[in-house]
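Preliminary data (for renewal application), adenosine-5'-triphosphate complex.
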Amino acid sequence: MDPSIFLQYSPPSGLPQESKLATYMNRSTSTPTRSLNQALGKLSLESSPTSIKKLSNGAPAGMQQVLIGEFVPISYYSPTNILPDSPESSPPATLPPTMPPMPTNPQVHQENVGGTTYFYSTNDSLNTTGCLSSSASLVGAEACMGPVVSAAASPYASQIYSGTPTHMGAPMGSGKPGLAASFYMPETIRNEIYQRNEDVFLQTDLRQYPDLPENVEMYSDLTPLESAAPHSMATSYRAAHRHSGDHYALRRLHNYSAVGNKRLDVWKQIDHPNVVRLHDYFTTKSFGDHSMVLVYDYHPGCTTLMNKYLATGTQGPNAEANGAFHDPFSSDPDAPRPYTHQKNAMLRAVACGALLPEAVLWSLLVQLTAALRAIHSAGLACRSLDPTKVVMNGCRIRIAWCGVADALHPTASDMTQAQQEDLSALGRLALALACRSVHCDNLPASMDLVSRTYSADLKNLILYLLSTAPTRRSVTDLMPMIGARFYTQVEALERRADAFEEQLAREIDNGRLLRILIKLGVINERPELNMDASWSETGDRYMLKLFRDYLFHSVTEDGRPWIDQAHLAHCLNQLDGGTGAKVELMSRDEQSVLVVSYAELKHCLEQAFDEVMLAAGAAP
Ligand SMILES: Nc1ncnc2c1ncn2[C@@H]1O[C@H](COP(=O)(O)OP(=O)(O)OP(=O)(O)O)[C@@H](O)[C@H]1O
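Predicted structure:
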């Protein structure tokens, strides 16, 4: 923009009455208090929207075109550019203790430049007000959408995405990652999250289960997790809590006749990342019998270790994809037959790369031993550690349905023996995973495979767990065998946490911008409010309407829509921050330009939205 076009001009008095801005300006009671030069000095043109060429076609005769250089999307993610005058950039401690209200009629200076009228706020307190208003409205917005957070603790100036941290990006000099990669979530994380969401919303055809009760105590929408086997003693369901709507996994024990036992209350206390948490248990007659129901956390997208790593291709959905080991003694006629015995089949598995990498095995073992350590130190035993009762989603495994054995056998008392059996069960599970077969009865052949393929530590750990010596074993004895692999696991988890934190940093502002868009949508072009048909065309709302036009309906010099998503996000961030940066809004009749700060626009937005909310909550 060439400022000389303003400087040479001596302003006429008055606002063109045909301009719709007159409606807004009529509310002003003040007189101009500073010169156009002063006002221009305050303009932040680097981020000004007027770099959009507008009005070239069909501009009324005599009107001065506001022609400014093509808008160049500067680095919107650089805090120095995005918030030139941001009042929020000063530390919260410097804010005045009280919050002066936004003046309803800010002092406005107006200038007509060759037929285009410019309006400037001359209220010097605007910056401060904008800052405070933004804090206030943050609380307002949060109160409307969720828990209130301390506005002062999170100034908006620092809430704009600052780019991928170097420790997450490609190393310098190793070539640029694609632009898309820097804007979008990696496919792996997206797929993982989508898969979980899909699982929660997946509806089973409940006509197949006509006997399912509509409600079971506080739970409804029961969906079987597995097709029921005939004469089954237990059935699993996903269900929604009737009050909170949260999903839970229910385990129903059919024809349950035992009385309650205290161990289930101890199970409820176990809160461990590798144990599916028991929340509640109750007996019910909703299924037509006397059943006991145990209520667990529901982990969407789960599959059992059996299905993931051990089932043959026809049995498990993931098995084929993961190169599952084909059991040489499978009853499946299509399964490859061994030409000699189990050992040969295992060696063939090694040759075709179907065995799990050792790092995966250690990751599973570290998690399982962590779970057992928590369970045993609580004075409990798992009693059912087998691959069908360990579930997995992502890289996390959890022992499922803990406490069911205690519910079924409340009088079983030898806990020490049960814990020893847990360790043996862990040994069998480790061997099965190492051989990728549940048929490891030929122990020498299986151990031979393990020693040929994996480290001595893994072999020793399995031997220790399977040992039948009378000496008492403990899960803590496994620690030296795991050794430094524990650090590998911790490092992998930290890297994963880094990746998720990086994604969170990218997406964290989306909700904030959505809330602003919702507010604008609620206000703009509302046909009428409180019987006032001109509501959206007057006062604060008119400014917002022009801002909406500016944001979404800008056109290039030759009339084509001008769309730059970075610019959109930049403007919405400025609005949310209520910064002192100025924006020039053109009236639709192209006769006037209103120069306002984002602080003023933010105030308008909050006022108008509050009005709508008030009207919405009013008694009919
Ligand atoms: N807490 C949980 N959250 C989500 N899914 C789970 C949970 N626990 C288990 N599952 C899933 O539920 C499905 C059924 O588990 P379940 O143990 O009932 O299998 P099953 O083979 O039918 O065993 P059983 O014959 O003993 O009932 C499995 O696919 C498992 O992945």
